[in-house]
Write a structure and sequence with these properties.
Length: 286
């Protein structure tokens, strides 16, 4: 028993080492262990999900499983789209809504990013603005619409202000959180190479915070679309929100779902735009 046990503990012979180890002239192939967490692009799956949902809705409504008073036929909604396009009202509503969304979101996002960066870089700014941001962030922005109407009037000013304010606060929170999450060892490395403060901010802090900033913009732009609809439901003749309000008051489900679909397509377009910017700006992460 002892001799058999000790024989198992003997070191490998030179022949065994030669068999298990590659020769000096050969390159040893090592399994790549960095993959598995990078998102792969499978766009056709998302399209397939939408097609299946539309097919189920069409089949369920035609077979009577779903009441047409609850969910209209997707084919009828598509027909309504065609009528809306042919009448020219589609562009009339879309152009007004896109203008309001662009101006309001641009003001709110640009101010939010600038404020968030200042909070992340300067302790005095953080001490003064973080409590104010924490107080403003939980307020339902739609509840402030009557106040903005009193301040800026019922015309375009109140709509721009509501969208800008609703975009501003989540962008601030996402931006200074992204600046805080920048790896401090990279900053210390830049200091060890005697980089100036401005160079560290431009070459290390801002690129490192950009993924978090863009993720925050996705959320902010979604909130901007919600506030756009709410603003257009008050004193607006044209706009997607006004179109949905009119269709809902007439219980026209085809037009109502057509307006909701426009908002969904708008959200998908904005998300795809942010994704395009991420691929362009954050190529260094590959």
């Amino acid at each position: 028993m002892r001799s058999w046990f000790m024989s198992d503990l003997k070191p490998n012979t030179a022949a065994d080492v030669t068999e298990t180890q590659p020769s000096k002239g050969q390159a040893r192939q090592v399994t790549f262990r960095g993959g598995g967490f990078a998102p792969a692009s499978h766009r056709w799956i998302g399209v397939l999900v939408f097609v299946l949902l539309l097919a189920l809705a069409e089949l369920g409504t035609r077979q009577g499983w779903i009441s047409p008073l609850t969910l209209p036929l997707p084919s009828d909604v598509l027909k309504t789209f065609g009528e809306l396009y042919a009448s020219g009202l589609l562009w009339a509503h879309m152009s007004v809504s896109l203008t309001r969304l662009f101006i309001g979101a641009l003001l709110g996002a640009s101010l939010g990013v600038a404020t968030g960066v200042l909070i992340g870089l300067f302790s005095y700014v953080r001490a003064g603005l973080v409590p104010l941001t924490a107080a403003l962030f939980p307020i339902p922005k739609i509840a402030l619409l009557p106040l903005f109407v009193i301040w800026f009037g019922i015309d375009e000013g109140s709509k721009y202000a509501l969208i800008a304010f609703g975009t501003f606060t989540p962008t601030v929170v996402a931006t200074y959180g992204a600046v805080d999450n920048v790896d401090r060892s990279l900053i210390r490395m830049g200091q060890s190479f005697n980089l100036s403060w401005f160079s560290i901010v431009r070459k290390i802090v801002l690129p490192g915070a950009m993924p978090g900033i863009l993720s925050g913009l996705r959320i902010s732009l979604a909130i901007a679309i919600i506030l756009l609809v709410a603003a257009e439901m008050l004193g607006a003749e044209y706009g997607i929100g006004a179109y949905i309000l009119e269709a809902g008051s007439l219980y026209d489900l085809e037009r109502l779902f057509a307006g909701v679909t426009i908002l969904s397509l708008l959200g998908v377009t904005l998300s795809a735009t942010i994704g395009f910017i991420e691929r362009r700006v954050l190529g260094w992460r590959q």
